């Protein structure tokens, strides 16, 4: 074996080997990713060369083979790629590879462990785990001489002839004593799965192919089926529910970017602050966390993004401010918005199916990013008490920026979302302009606010259900800021003028006391409840059938309730029922009128109140209990009291 050359590798840093070995401590495992990537590159170069020679050269099926030799403590990576000539080894290994390693180390030393992918150390990363690295290679070029390069981790190398017959390269690592884990089959499999799963060349080890190879995000969306996307998702996130929808990113200008982002079905126990999107660079896995590249509000998404234009050897903080990265983030947000818009326009059924799950996400995005908000503004849906009937005439919406609605109209002229009981805010406001301009009535809890909703519905007033956490705590205040004329009132905050009529009871004055009936009712209740925190108001609810309206309702004024909600949220507690609240007594209701008569008919005796006055008092209490129950239900103590009082009332009523 002729020694072709012995020499020193030219390096400028004192000696990079100790640095490679020690400083890159945490990430030793990436050596395999780097060597496999080189092998894949060599294979595609060979393909290109064959292509250029118009098929004059035959190219074998591409393959990378990993072999472990435990006795000799070696791990080798063999490819049937382009190979290297002596001159190429001298140039690419001794010079190029080293100088890029040097550059990398310089950067690395500056930003320590902060680098996102530890990319670009390339071939020399092999020295992190090896006491000796050998290259055995034969170039594809005709008449090339196979060469053997060997280096023991000092800047000295040796280059000799080799008797290799097959075109390609084998890199053999004699592992350091404390790096023996890389002789374990399980570890090798795990590394290939993690980093090189989507490399387009089969990676063979102990008789099997370890990698999946197919990177569908690099393929054209036209060639992919729904099943392809689902299968890929299930592969990336096994044992998870299927995603709701996905966006295929595919651009080559002004940066190269491919990827697929999925909207998962969010489970409450998933921590969405930790991104689950995988970052790749030319199909090589880089990181599970790419918070710096993805806009924060897109963090709940899953999937893959792959871009060689994301700089990987800068610190994470530098990455956030990097111009290309910011543009990529904007691009991704825009594409997500576009996808939602097209689904909204083209497939209302599918959009609605997803809405309950993606609604929070879309709202959060709107809160966070103005551009995104503008994009999805008209796609935000609210469940409503209004339901468009197919026979109804089309609602004309006059919005400043045109009728964004028309695209979603269907043949029958009825908005498909309204047919299903959903509306946009714009449509709600337009529809109710005549009756309550710029007022939105909403409900946050369908069961505890059912009485109120019913009351509004019966009077033909439309109520929106805004019952998610984000609605009550963030989104309503946000919408009020955005649309400064619009005010939101929860159905139980006050009784809108349109629900009440002139209180006849206030006109009827009792000559004996000089008090109106309303004042008397108020007094009876005040006395019976004897609680200064309850502000009693008398009002007359509009209805053709007063018996069907509630006799009394507990009201929590909007501003006061919101303040309490906010305080509770900041203290991370559930909001306690406000001590101070309004009790609106419906003077129109027969029960209230009966209580008044009962109370007036009572004779005050010397020893206290007459039985009918006492009954009236108990009934007042009962009316209040029922109003409270309709508002919030009872706690244990409240329930006990309520049952006791109810039994007492019933006993009294059945006494005769
Ligand atoms: N298996 C191989 N077959 C053929 N040539 C190789 C092989 N491995 C390395 N080389 C050559 O050595 C050069 C240096 O490799 P190295 O991995 O250090 O850097 P790189 O691949 O050019 O860049 P990167 O920093 O992205 O890894 C390569 O550009 C290539 O020309």
Automatic annotation (TrEMBL):
Classification via InterPro entries: HATPase_C_sf, HATPase_dom, Heat_shock_protein_90_CS, HSP90_C, Hsp90_fam, Hsp90_N, Ribosomal_Su5_D2-typ_SF
Keyword list, A-Z: ATP-binding, Chaperone, Nucleotide-binding
Chain ranges of the Histidine kinase/HSP90-like ATPase domain: 27-179
Pfam families, sorted: HATPase_c_3 (PF13589), HSP90 (PF00183)
UniProt-listed SMART domains: HATPase_c
UniProt cross-references to SUPFAM superfamilies, sorted A to Z: ATPase domain of HSP90 chaperone/DNA topoisomerase II/histidine kinase (SSF55874), HSP90 C-terminal domain (SSF110942), Ribosomal protein S5 domain 2-like (SSF54211)
Keyword GTP-binding: no
Family: Belongs to the heat shock protein 90 family.
Protein name (record): Molecular chaperone HtpG
Organism (species): Synechocystis salina LEGE 00031
Gene name of the encoded protein: htpG
């Amino acid at each position: 074996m002729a020694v072709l050359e012995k020499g020193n590798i030219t390096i400028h840093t004192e000696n990079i080997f100790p640095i490679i070995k020690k400083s890159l401590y945490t990430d030793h495992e990436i050596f395999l990713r780097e060597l496999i990537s080189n092998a894949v590159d060599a294979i595609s170069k060979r393909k290109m060369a064959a292509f250029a020679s118009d098929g004059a050269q035959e190219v074998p099926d591409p393959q990378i083979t990993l072999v472990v030799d435990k006795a000799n403590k070696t791990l080798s990576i063999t490819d049937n790629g382009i190979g290297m000539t002596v001159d190429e080894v001298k140039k690419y290994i001794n010079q190029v590879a080293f100088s890029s390693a040097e550059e990398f180390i310089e950067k690395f030393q500056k930003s320590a462990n902060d680098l996102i992918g530890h990319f670009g150390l390339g071939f020399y990363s092999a020295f992190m785990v090896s006491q000796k690295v050998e290259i055995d290679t034969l170039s594809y070029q005709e008449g090339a001489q196979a060469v053997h390069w060997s280096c023991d981790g000092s800047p000295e190398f040796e280059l000799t002839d080799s008797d290799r017959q097959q075109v390609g390269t084998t890199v053999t690592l004699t592992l350091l004593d404390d790096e023996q884990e890389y002789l374990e089959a399980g570890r090798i499999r795990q590394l290939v799965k993690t980093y090189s799963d989507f490399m387009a060349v089969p990676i063979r080890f102990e008789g099997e192919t370890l990698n999946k190879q197919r990177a569908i995000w690099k393929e054209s969306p036209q060639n992919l089926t729904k099943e392809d996307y689902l299968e890929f998702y299930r592969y990336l996130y096994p044992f998870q529910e299927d995603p709701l929808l996905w966006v295929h990113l595919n651009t080559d200008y002004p940066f190269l970017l491919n990827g697929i982002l999925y909207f998962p079905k969010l489970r409450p126990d998933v921590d969405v602050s930790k991104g689950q999107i995988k970052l790749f660079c030319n199909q090589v896995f880089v990181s599970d966390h790419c918070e710096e590249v993805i806009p924060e509000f897109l963090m709940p998404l899953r999937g893959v993004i792959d871009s060689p234009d994301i700089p990987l050897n800068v610190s994470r903080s530098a990455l956030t401010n990097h111009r290309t990265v910011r543009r990529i983030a904007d691009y991704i947000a825009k594409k997500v918005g576009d996808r939602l818009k097209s689904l909204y326009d083209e497939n209302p059924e599918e959009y609605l199916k997803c809405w309950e799950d993606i609604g929070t996400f879309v709202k959060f995005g709107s809160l966070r990013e103005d551009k995104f908000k503008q994009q999805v503004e008209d796609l935000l849906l609210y469940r409503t008490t209004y339901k468009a009937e197919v026979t109804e005439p089309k609602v004309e919406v006059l919005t400043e920026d045109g009728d964004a609605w028309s695209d979603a109209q269907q043949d029958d002229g009825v908005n498909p979302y309204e047919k299903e009981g959903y509306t946009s805010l714009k449509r709600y406001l337009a529809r109710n302009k005549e009756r309550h301009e710029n007022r939105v009535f909403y409900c946050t809890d369908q069961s505890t606010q059912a009485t109120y909703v019913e009351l509004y519905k019966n009077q033909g007033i439309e109520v929106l259900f805004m019952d998610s956490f984000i609605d009550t705590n963030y989104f309503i205040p946000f919408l009020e800021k955005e649309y400064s004329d619009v005010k939101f009132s929860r159905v139980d905050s006050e009784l809108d003028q349109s629900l009440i009529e002139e209180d006849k009871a206030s006109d009827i004055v009792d000559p004996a006391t000089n008090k109106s009936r309303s004042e008397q009712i108020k007094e009876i209740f005040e006395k019976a409840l004897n609680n200064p925190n309850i502000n009693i108001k008398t009002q007359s609810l509009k209805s053709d059938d007063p018996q069907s309206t509630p006799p009394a309702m507990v009201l929590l004024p909007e501003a006061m309730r919101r303040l309490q909600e906010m305080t509770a949220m900041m203290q991370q507690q559930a909001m306690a029922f406000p001590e101070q609240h309004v009790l609106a007594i419906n003077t129109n209701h027969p029960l209230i009128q009966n209580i008044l008569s009962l109370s007036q008919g009572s004779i005050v005796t010397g020893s206290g109140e007459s039985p009918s006055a006492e009954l009236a008092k108990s009934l007042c209490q009962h009316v209040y209990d029922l109003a409270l129950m309709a508002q919030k239900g009872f706690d244990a103590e409240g329930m006990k009291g309520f049952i006791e009082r109810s039994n007492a009332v019933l006993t009294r009523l059945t006494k005769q």
